[in-house]
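WARN  no MSA supplied for this record, continuing single-sequence
INFO  ligand: zinc ion
INFO  echoing inputs
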Amino acid sequence: MLAAAVHAAHPERSYRYVQIAKKICSRTRVRMPRPLKRLFCKHCGSFLSPAVTRVRLCDGVLTTTCLLCGRQMRRPYRI
Ligand SMILES: [Zn+2]
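INFO  complex generated
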């Protein structure tokens, strides 16, 4: 993903790429592929690098907290 590649060098640009990717998805009615989906914050759309996230595992649920907007995304995982 382009946003991931760009993030290291230009953190502010990756946000823009996420916006573009979202736009494409909504226009073409294509769902965001799963591995890509978990790369972005669902709420504020920022690219989730390990520096801005906090990940917790609890009772089969993986909770990722976006430290930029403070909200959480949850998804189940298999043990
Ligand atoms: Zn966020």
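DSSP finds three helices and three strands in the chain.
INFO  checksum written, moving to next record
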